[in-house]
Amino acid sequence: MPILDVIDLHARYAERGPEVLKGISFAVEEDDFFAIIGPSGAGKSTLIRCINRLVEPESGRILLYGADVTKMSARRLRHTRRHIGMIFQEFNLVDRMSVMDNVLSGRLGYVGNLRSLFRLFPRHDIIRALELLDRVGLSDHVDKRADELSGGQRQRVGIARALMQDPQLLLLDEPTSSLDPKISREVMELIREIAKEYKVPVLCNIHNVQLAMEFCNRILGLQDGIKMFDGPTDQIDRQKLDEIYAMEVL
Amino acid sequence: MTSAAMTVRVDAIVVTRAKAKGLRYAGYFALFLLVLWSIHATIIVDTDWARLGSFGSVMRAVGRYASLDLELVPLLWEPMVETFMMACLGTLLGCFLSLPVAWFGALNVTPSKLIVYPVGRFLMTLSRSIHEIVWGLIFVSAVGLGALPGILALACRSVGFISKITAEAIENIDPKPVEAIRAVGGNNFQVMYYGIVPQIMPIVLGTIIFEWDINIRRSAIMGLVGAGGLGLAFHRQMVMFNYPGVTTVIAAILVLIMLGEVISHRIRKAVI
User: Fold this and answer.
1) Whole-complex ipTM
2) Does domain B71-271 have CATH number 1.10.3720.10?
């Protein structure tokens, strides 16, 4: 059974704005590292954000382990979001907080308001946070403020935060767009390793086609809100890529 | 261009500039006449020249304040402490009252843009439109004399500025951390506390310190309407016509304000 099943997804940003996603359907299996590629404005970011309803879809179904995310109440949605880890293009860290607090904030869905207020996360959470920070190579930076780190380091904090949630699915929104080529590659390698290690499927929105082809096993090609390609990486060729990116002004 | 055409063009420009200059100077002259008329209407007509006497007598009147009544000093310690405490407690209470007002008055977090937001904005304006002395009078008539009406008055007056700056800070936050906390499954409180509060903290703290500093001065004045502290001492010396005493009280207020400045500076460095 697929972990994530998206069925006929439609979305638009404003009430009467243009339709950004025009009936997208695809499935993500347990060991997938799924890349969404396409030109700017194709709807890649919107698609990623519809999965955890940061953007409200207009119609369609999004089944996470069989449960329809689009129909969930606010409370159930929050509980479900705990199981979906997200890594952002611009890291989305709380700059003035320490690295440790940022990683611990991944557990906010599991702790109550009083604990949140005093930042009293359970001991086992702190232990796990330290383990994860060690895994991503940031043991020496645990008490630094998030804004004291470089871009690559910040993204690794983001990765640790997402993993703190013990996620069933990882959503990546252009995780390497703000990083230089060498660091981009390192970050993608780290994510691939960790995803394999913790057996978490990854859905990744990426505009660097080379990286997509290198790290991902399946590709979803979007153009103007429509699915142009959905299949294994080894089946996509130059011609198909040109078709997908046809409308992009280089 | 031929020299004849050039001359015509230059003449035209000279005429336009002369006209503009003329208009400007006419404006200045009109302004000058307006100022003369204002001086006449407000000062010359309204002043009791007989009472004023000569320049010398005015200087002598001011000179009466030019000495200190040192015997008064030991009696001023308690009012000084009271004034200082009033400023602290008034600012603290003002902070608490500002929280809901700022939340209401920030477009991105207000519960209702149509009803609650205008109410928040109105409360901000109301707080700042009523002078602290008037607030003082309102509370003295409501709760009686002493430090309490002073504290309440300061709190009400402080809400306007603190909540306005806080609301503006909230409206200017970076939405990205907020998005991240939502994505992690945080509820509204967690989104606010982890996503919004850390971003606005420096500005809000700076504003609170600033307002506290101003409140020291305000709290000294409060005593004039019966709200305790140095203001009361000031009033007493005035009604006894003890001019050196009045100067001494003013000097005490000055000491407090300077102390407030030093403390603000230190706290700012330490916290922000």
Assistant:
1) 0.91
2) yes
